[in-house]
Amino acid sequence: MKMFMLKSFIVAALMFISVLTGMEIANNGIHKMKGYDDPNFQNAVSINEHDKDFNATFLGKELSSHDLESKKKKLEEMNAFNFFSSMGKKVSDGLTNGSEKLIRKITE
Q1: pLDDT tier, 84 (very low <50, low <70, confident <90, very high otherwise)
Q2: Which of 2, 43, 63, 74 is the most buried (most CB within 10 A)?
Q3: What string of DSSP letters covers the chain?
Q4: Structural contact between residues 57 and 63, judged by C-beta atoms closer than 8 angstroms
Q5: What's the whole-model pTM score?
Q6: What span, in angstroms and rounded, lies between the C-alpha atoms of 16 and 51?
Q7: Which pairing describes strands 61-64 and 53-58: parallel, antiparallel, or unpaired?
Q8: Contact assessment for residue 60 and residue 42, using Cβ atoms and an 8 Å cutoff
Q9: Residue ranges of domains in the chain
């Protein structure tokens, strides 16, 4: 069983590395296909930090730290997200504990 888990982990790690490599190759291919360096070519996400000021661009839409702070305050006032985040934490804790117990039983 230990060998199966080891082989599964190695296969999953290879798949993860392959996906990252494929994404890098695709990005390089896009730049080569254009045939020239375009200064207007934008990344999907770009982040600029200046001292305490934070500016980000997400798919061409400008976001600033003031926008993020106002959205954070709005979410805190609504209190609607607390229910789902607490339920998510409970589910993830339960799954973590269950998987740890299962792994301990398998390895013993």
Answers
A1: confident
A2: 63
A3: -HHHHHHHHHHHHHHHHHHHHHHHHHHHHHHHHH-S--TT---SEEEEEETTEEEEEETTEEEEHHHHHHHHHHHHHH--HHHHHHHHHHHHHHHHHHHHHHHHHHH-
A4: yes
A5: 0.34
A6: 35
A7: antiparallel
A8: yes
A9: 1-36, 42-80
